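Researcher: Next entry in the queue.
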Amino acid sequence: MTELSHVDDTGSVRMVDVGAKPLCRRRATARAIVRMASETALRLRTLPKGDALATAQLAGIMAAKRTSELIPLCHPLPLSAIDVELSVGETTVEITASAETIAQTGVEMEALVAASVAALTVYDMAKAIDKEMVVAEVALVEKFKEQV
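Model: Structure for this entry, 148 residues:
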């Protein structure tokens, strides 16, 4: 295992200094899955709280923008694009979130936070009608970096 960049020689946590790193175009994509009853999946746009899919999409976008406030030691990034897509299956909602920036550090956490918060929003909005729902997976799907 490599040395942890967020821990100094004494074992204390620290924010990594990325000031000397070159600017790069960066993109990351994350996915989250919410498992639910088929009846729930059919009702996601007409729940008592409203349209869970539209609300979750907006929640994911808003969350990506606030990642540095939620995750200690994350750098605030100038996000140039955030995309959150929700795909409803028979018993699942698959959320794919991507974030882009031109910066000195990556956007993996922004994509993961967007997917996670969108999944939690689906869960929150449908929990009254489905007590067995599960946020099953949250994972980084890909990341990309190129010099500018």
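Model: The CA atoms of residues 64 and 113 lie 6 Å apart.
Researcher: Noted, moving on.
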